[in-house]
Design brief:
mainly beta; about 40% strand; globular; 4-stranded antiparallel sheet
């Protein structure tokens, strides 16, 4: 999270933001959320804040703060190293073998002098007598003028064969990766081989908040582009690339390398939500969810709030995300059960989170005022064929997943552009 000094007041306020509930059923004041599912099936989030706040939920909608990892704003060793620090930034939580590792970073705004530390615990159950976080100290650090990275925004990952990796970095030379020792959670070698996995040399290096996840045949690297903490003016957005190797190279939908400005859009601004980003990904045997922070344009006083959305993996393997979870839109693994008559009505349609337009789906697969366009259902998918859209013969329709509510759909077209539809009038 690269921060300029002009953002100091806003970002400091985020560190101190109270943990209160929003009407949408999600928790306020949870920037840079890292999520994990515990042994009992419940969920924990670790977030930016003094002492490293920890939250618990059984349904991904109702959250309760259960304490902090540390009983001081930052561990003593990191405060001595970074005296200007205000609190802990951008944690990650991961289970390596049989131990839970929480990574955290300490820095000051706009500085490249930063450290990543790690603490361990044998359980996430805060009611257990064995629950105790033990600080294991330094993992990685950066110095101005001697490093091409900033040692913040860590995220670790363990693959099926036991090998573990970490990605980190913000601005400067971009996102880096190393292999970890899964027993210690620290670099495998004293002089680790550091790989570059994402950078934006043509955009002032504006990439950070990396998170790695494995899905089927690929490793996916999620990152955040542009400006994080400007309220309604935030340009933060989530991008993704993929690789057959956890250390890269990662490429986007078009084949562009992520180390050369590449990245495929996952989540961006719309009229309600601004600056969505710094995500983690929850992967369970029932599905995947993206967990991130964002601003509510109607309640900017709430600062960055938590938002959780389902991930739908397309037939081509690229992810798209659905509408945010809430009390009215709870976590579910059910597929949409809709019929053609349920789809008839007015829909707000957008491409890559741009301006919305209204389309009217009519009976018999017709679209109002579009005599050559057509739509149809197959399973929980809607397929829309537009005239004169490449390929010009109209043989490849836009195919989108209908969300369980039946009132929204999302997908990508043949060029990788995100298509989103929300029903305007619910019948």
């Amino acid at each position: 999270m690269f921060r300029s000094l002009v953002l100091f007041t806003l970002a400091a306020a985020c560190l101190l933001a109270p943990s209160v509930y929003a009407k949408e059923g999600v928790l306020l004041g949870m920037p840079d959320p890292a999520v994990i599912q515990a042994e009992d099936g419940s969920f924990y989030i670790f977030a930016t804040g003094k002492g490293l706040p920890v939250y618990h939920s059984t349904n991904l909608v109702d959250w309760e703060k259960i304490g902090t990892v540390f009983d001081t704003p930052v561990p003593a060793w990191s405060k001595k190293t970074i005296p200007e620090t205000q609190g802990i930034w951008a944690p990650d939580i991961v289970k390596l073998n049989d131990t839970f590792f929480v990574y955290y970073c300490v820095s000051s705004f706009g500085s490249q002098r930063s450290v990543i530390g790690v603490a361990t615990n044998s359980t996430l159950d805060h009611t257990s007598p064995d629950y105790k976080w033990v600080d294991q100290g330094l993992v990685m650090e950066s110095f101005p003028g001697t490093c091409d990275f900033n040692a913040i925004d860590p995220a670790a990952f363990q693959q099926a064969d036991g090998r573990a990796f970490m990605v980190w970095g913000s601005f400067w030379g971009g996102v880096k990766s190393i292999e970890l020792n899964p027993e210690t959670g620290k670099p495998l070698d004293k002089q680790p081989d550091i790989s570059s996995v994402a950078s934006r040399p043509s955009h002032s290096g504006a990439v950070e908040g990396a998170y790695m996840v494995h899905h089927e045949d690929y490793y996916y690297l999620f990152v955040s582009f542009d400006s994080c903490c400007d309220g309604a003016e935030s340009t933060y957005r989530v991008m993704v690339g993929r690789s057959e190797n956890p250390l890269g190279p990662y490429i986007d939908f078009t084949g562009k390398p992520m180390v050369k400005d590449g990245g495929t859009l996952v989540l961006s601004n719309n009229d309600n939500w601004r600056g969505p980003g710094h995500n983690s990904v929850l992967t369970t045997d029932k599905g995947s969810w993206i967990v991130h922070h964002t601003y509510d344009t109607f309640h900017l006083e709430n600062q960055r709030i938590l938002q959780i959305r389902p991930i739908y993996w397309g037939a081509d393997g690229w992810p798209v995300v659905g509408e945010p979870l809430s009390k009215a839109n709870p976590m579910t693994t059910e597929k949409a059960n809709v019929k053609a008559d349920d789809m008839i009505g007015s829909w707000r349609l957008s491409y890559n989170y741009g301006d919305e337009k209204i389309i009217d789906l009519l009976p018999k697969g017709r679209i109002a005022f579009q005599p050559e366009a057509k739509w149809k259902l197959k399973d929980n998918k809607i397929m829309i064929t537009w005239p004169n859209k490449p390929p010009t013969d109209g043989s490849a329709p836009d195919t989108c997943t209908i969300e369980p509510s039946g009132n929204a759909f999302v997908g990508r077209d043949q060029a990788g552009v995100i298509i989103r539809g929300k029903k305007l009038i619910v019948r």
